[in-house]
Amino acid sequence: MGNYYLKDYEYLRPKVIDRGKAGNIVASLERNKVGNCKLFARLWLREVLKGLKQFLYEGSLHGVKYIFEPTFSFKERMIWVVIVVISIAICAVNIFQLFSKWHSTPFVNVIDSLPSPIWAVPFPMVVVCPQLHLQRSYVNVSAIDKLSLNHFFASLVCPQMSHTKQAPSQRMTPEDNILMQKFIVEGSPKCTDIIKSCYWRPTQELEWLEKECCEKMFKPIFTDYGLCFAFNSLPLNAMNNDTQYWHKTFDKNVTQQALNWSLDGGYPKVFPPDPTMIPLRVMASGEINGLGVELYLNSSEHQFECDGNNLGYNVLISSPTDHVYVSTVLRLPMNKMTTIEVSPTTYKTDNALRGLAPYIRQCFFQDEKKLNYYEFYTDSNCKHDFWMREVKKKCHCVLYNWPRLYIWETICSTKLDFRCIEEVRAKVEEQLTYAYYEDSQEDRKAQTEFASCHPACNDILYSSQVFYSDLMSVPRISKANFQFKEGEVTRINVHFYDDIFLGQHRHTQYDDYYFAGAIGGLLSLFLGFSIISVAELVYFALLKPVHTACDFNKSDFTPEDLHSNIYSHPYIYPEGRDLQHNIL
After folding, report:
1. What value does the mean pLDDT take over residues 430-446?
2. Which one of 17, 427, 501, 532 is at 20 to 30 Å from 408 when CA atoms are compared?
């Protein structure tokens, strides 16, 4: 085989082999920095896995450490695996149910824990509508030519006449619209014709006013009952400024006026409160702190062809922000003393719910939905505004008593127009009902447009109780010298029932702290999880591996170290090697 020398086998010596390996590593690290990055990543991953194992074995989680207990047999470990999995599953189901409940009903309505004073809310708007729509002294309805426009004009306000039967074959011209407005305004009773005296405690002492009633307190307003007069109505009757020119057709003194009050913000928190601030309010309850009105109705002006057998007043009690196109009214008979006791109910919503979509919280704040005709958003204003917009879009006209953005807008006057209005009304009611049930479903989807007329998040509603008593003699509160007959005078008093009231409050069912506490309680109950567990996890799985990796990166790790002590380097082989170069 030939002669061989010992030096020929020098490369087989362990030192030579080790030196060769070290030389290869050094060459690799010097040629490519990627090798050092891989070594860093390998070390970091190794420390993360080691830290997770230490967290599970030595941490505070219940039962998990028994899975890694070295003294337990395989069967014992499997038993604890099953126990931990069942506990995690039950905990997950409970957390899911809690989240589902929060998502489906994120808020609750509760009664206020503390009562509110009545001076924190406006006095209700009181609308007085005489059941005398056209005065005989202005026009005799029975003598009007049935083919004339005046007969159709009368049918619009007279409940005994059908405007659909009297409707002309063609729509009225803009000139006819002006004549119609003049006919209704001049033919209806004036404020001074029906209101002889009034009493309002916050602005004067025990004094009944006469001339000032109609100049300062009662303003004309169009309703479904014709031309009426409203007390404590907002500027432009809570309609937007675009309707000012229409208001001037029946109220020449109407003006725009800025308000220091809003549904969301309420009155300014100043003391003493200003009693003349609009909308008006009272400081106490009781008849003496309410509104008293003496009403007169001239029976000689009554026309059976227009009003039938009805003689009296319709009275509407509502919030100053709501529209007056409603049919829910109180009947005020003549020769009676009518007392109306009002109880307010406020609905408030926490600002914390602003983060939820309106279709989830089921209400709108004032800055979230604007209406075309009304300044304030309420559910009743929304529905009526929606109906008016749909009628204008589908029928291309508006009713005579509806607010108009432009004076020259077409008035619905033909039979086709009135039929179209009823069809649109039915479709609007159907659409609103469908949208309500659609939004009431728990699996409802997010909406890009708000189809439902949800209530206002902050609103005021008024409920009333009515009491009647006989007037044994005709009251002579008014100093004016006018002649009247028995049954032509009546009195009304509207006041708050109590000095305080309980409102309703909409707030989050689970706020951030409660929700975190509920989830933390479930985790602690089933797994023993706590804030300390989070700290342990962060320490063992993040901080400690990062610290070890950073120490490796900052260490004096040079190629000479690899040549001299490659196997004992703590960052390459943390557990070292024995003399036979086996990993310990």
Report:
1. 72
2. 427
Task: Write out the H or E segment, with its range, that includes residue 547.
Answer: helix 544-554
Nearest by Cα to 493 from 189, 194, 131, 201: 201
Q: Which helix (H) or strand (E) holds 340?
A: strand 336-349
- Alpha-carbon distance of 149 to 138, in angstroms, equals 16
Calculate the CA dihedral of residues 368, 374, 375, 377 and round it to 10 degrees.
Answer: -40
Paired with 330 in beta bridges are: 315
Ramachandran region, residue 214 (left: φ > 0; alpha: ψ -120 to 50; beta: rest)? alpha
Element spanning 30, H or E:
helix 14-31
Q: Is the per-residue pLDDT at 1 higher than 80?
A: no
Amino acid identity for residue 552 in this structure: F
Q: What is the pLDDT of residue 50?
A: 79
**CA–CA gap between residue 533 and residue 65 (Å, rounded):** 13
Cα 51 from Cα 538, distance rounded (Å): 10
How far is 127 from 139, CA to CA, in rounded Å?
25
Cβ contact 316:451 at 8 Å? no
Helical H segments across 59-73, by residue range: none
The pLDDT tens digits of the residues spanning 47-93 come to 778 777 777 777 677 777 788 777 888 888 888 889 888 988 998 89
Q: In degrees rounded to 5, what are phi and psi of residue 411?
A: -95, 135
Q: pLDDT over 90 for what percent of the chain?
A: 26
The predicted pLDDT at position 581 comes to 43
DSSP 269: -
Peptide bond into 279 cis (omega under 30): yes
Q: What are phi and psi of 495, to 5 degrees?
A: -155, 165
Give the C-alpha separation, 363 to 23, whole Å.
76
| Residue 137 DSSP one-character state | T
CA 33-37-42 angle, to 5 degrees, is 145
Per-residue burial over 390-422, b = 16 or more CB atoms within 10 Å of its CB, e = otherwise: bbbeebebbbbbbbbbeeebbbbbbeebbebbe
Nearest-angstrom CA–CA distance, 282 and 92: 55
Amino acid of residue 528 = G
Asked if residue 539 lies in contact with residue 547, where contact means CB atoms within 8 angstroms, the answer is no
Give the pairing type, strands 330-333 and 312-318: antiparallel
Task: Provide CB contacts within 8 A for 125, sequence distance 6+.
Answer: 230, 231, 232, 233, 279, 316, 317, 318, 319, 320, 322, 324
Q: Chain-wide mean pLDDT for the chain?
A: 80
CA-based nearest residue to 428, from 466, 477, 390 = 390
As a whole number, mean pLDDT of residues 256-275 equals: 85
Among 521, 189, 112, which residue's Cα sits nearest to residue 345?
Answer: 112
Contact 414, 171 (CB under 8 A): yes
Peptide bond into 403 cis (omega under 30): no
- Residue 374 has phi, psi (to 5 degrees) of -110, 145
Read off the pLDDT of residues 91-119 as tens digits, 9 standing for 90 and up. Answer: 889 888 888 877 777 788 888 888 899 99
